[in-house]
Design brief:
CATH architecture of one domain: Alpha-Beta Complex
Radius of gyration: 22 Å
Helix content: 25-40%
Number of strands: 21
Structural class: alpha/beta
CATH superfamily of one domain: Succinate dehydrogenase/fumarate reductase flavoprotein, catalytic domain
Strand content: 15-25%
Length: 537
């Protein structure tokens, strides 16, 4: 199948790009599950943006939003990128309103929330299911957009590049090999303008707020294709994931209690009712996420407790039910009334701040390949993401990526000049008969990453992780080439690749900065005031 644009991923970044690109040529959007199964749909808090005068919080400004972002990023943000993305935020809001997104209002004005690291109220939200509101609106628009084909249950295996075909000319993208999950057939999707918008890699950890689809597919594909990857040591742990050992199932273990709850007055306390975060940072529960997550980790280890608590019992009766209906009802389903009882919480892997290295337009180091959203490392987030900047980045870079592609690549196909692409050959014609091996390796990978490469690290733990990952990579490689490919094999292959990138980047950063905190190097070091860039040769 040949198209002018090939988009891999169906969150805010991928669909925003696809809808706009369809005005200029044919677009195919591939997603490995259902279109709604994206990180976007799981975003509770909202979208950070400074609105025009008269609609914004008193005293707020673009300069303040820039300053907050730079402060959270711990010195590694690219200021020009931050300035560009934050400045273009209002246009992003207009886009989403045009797609039918219904943000909450108070009278004639948007109801603005506040989250950790923000000095003003600037978070647009749709109750506590903002991401799902955005995702559903975009999917509805995409399905009725001419020139746009949305294919669900199509798992992209690998990018096809001229370099992989042995070309000696400039390496450029040609498309992707894609597994059609229903038939098990691997197809070629051809395009010399490919956009990765696959989200993050949260499932590389045992405990995560991410959906099951977050297996780092885009980073792994780009890495194997030879693109540069940056800053994968910076994995953000959300401070408040619901903790209930009696609750079973992945949904219970990954249920996020939005940072917006703290923005509305929720306070983190220990089992004695003490606000322990004030001892670490004067902003207390609303300090940036890296600071709060480490404070919780330290408190749990100091006291031996299984969790800490998010207390909203001081809020007026009915407040949580009205402002956070999804969270309130979900907690009720687990037998907890958060208006009467503090919410038990622990940190969980949430967001990758690194990814495929790009410029502010999403351009990677491979010609014709772009990456936007969480899969990309644009320089916006630095060493720690400011809350709710992710939906902002996804839509702004979608606009900029399309403009850049239209400027550099004329949308027309030259079939006679395109190299032949060989058909896919399975490692074996038989389906895998030892799924228990896949599940065991998956579980082992996620446990070793949680134990050795999580909130607080050491050189010794990182070396142990690297050693075991080398063995896992060998086992997965043998399994991959020895059996017919399936979604389970492909996800495990990608998870091992991304886990190795996280560890390799972490080993190279011999300091503590932002989300990378190591007991062997407790302070920052100006020698590491730079990106950690890796490239496969």
């Amino acid at each position: 199948m040949t198209s002018d644009f090939l988009v891999i991923g169906s969150g805010i970044a991928g669909l925003s790009f696809a809808i706009r690109a369809a005005r200029h040529g044919s677009v195919v959007v591939l997603t490995k599950g259902a279109a709604i199964d994206s990180n976007t749909a799981w975003a509770q808090g909202g979208l950070a943006s400074v609105l025009p005068e008269g609609l914004r919080d008193e005293g707020d400004s673009v300069e303040l939003h820039i300053a907050d972002t730079l402060d959270a990023g711990a010195g590694l943000c690219k200021e020009d990128v931050v300035r560009t993305i934050v400045t273009e935020g209002a246009a992003t809001v207009d886009d989403l309103l045009g797609y039918g997104v219904d943000f909450d209002k108070e009278g004639d004005h948007f109801a603005l929330g506040k989250e950790g690291g923000h000095s003003k109220r600037r978070i647009l939200h749709a109750r506590d299911t903002t991401g799902r509101e955005i995702a559903e609106s975009l999917i509805e628009v995409a399905r009725r957009t001419p020139n746009l084909t949305l294919l669900e249950n199509h798992f992209s295996i690998d990018l096809i590049t001229t370099g992989k075909l042995g070309s000696v000319t400039e390496d450029r993208v040609l498309g992707a090999y894609v597994l059609e999950k229903e038939s098990g057939e691997v197809k070629i999707f051809r395009s010399d303008r490919v956009l990765l918008a696959t989200g993050g890699c949260g499932k590389v950890y045992l405990y995560t707020t991410n959906p099951d689809s977050s297996t780092g597919d885009g980073v792994a594909m780009a890495w194997r294709a030879g693109a540069s990857v940056a800053n994968m040591e910076f994995i953000q742990f959300h401070p408040t994931c619901f903790y209930n050992p009696a609750a079973t199932g992945p949904e219970a273990r990954s249920f996020l209690v939005s940072e917006a709850v703290r923005g509305e007055g929720g306070i983190l306390i220990n089992s004695r009712g003490e606000d322990f975060t004030r001892k670490v940072d004067p902003r207390g529960s609303l300090a940036p996420r890296d600071i709060v997550a480490r404070a919780i980790d330290r408190e749990i280890k100091r006291t031996g407790a299984a969790c800490v608590y998010l207390d909203v019992t001081h809020k007026p009766a009915g407040f949580m039910r009205e402002r956070f209906p999804f969270i309130y009802e979900k907690l009720r389903s687990y037998g907890l009334d958060c208006e009467k009882q503090p919410i038990p919480v622990v940190p969980a892997a949430h967001y990758q701040c690194g990814g495929v290295l790009t410029d502010v337009n999403g351009k990677t180091t491979i010609r014709g390949l772009y990456a936007i959203g969480e899969v990309a490392s644009t320089g916006l987030h630095g060493a720690n993401r400011l809350a709710s900047n992710s939906l902002l980045e996804g839509n702004v870079t979608a606009r900029r990526a399309l403009d850049d592609i239209l400027h550099h690549y004329q949308v027309q196909r030259h079939a006679d000049e395109a190299p032949d692409i060989p058909e896919w050959h399975h490692g074996d014609v038989t389906a895998p008969d030892e799924l228990v091996v896949i599940y065991h390796n998956w579980d082992e990978l996620r446990r070793l990453m949680w134990d050795y490469v999580s909130i607080v690290r050491t050189d010794n733990r990182l070396r142990r992780a690297a050693t075991r990952l080398r063995n896992l990579k060998k086992e997965v490689r043998e399994f991959y080439w020895g059996h017919r490919v399936t979604a389970d094999i492909l996800e495990l292959r990608n998870l091992v690749a991304v886990a190795s990138l996280v560890v390799d980047c972490a080993i190279r950063r011999r300091e503590s900065r932002g989300l990378h905190h190591t007991l062997d190097y407790r302070g920052t070091d100006e020698r590491f005031l730079r990106e950690t860039v890796l490239r496969r040769f």
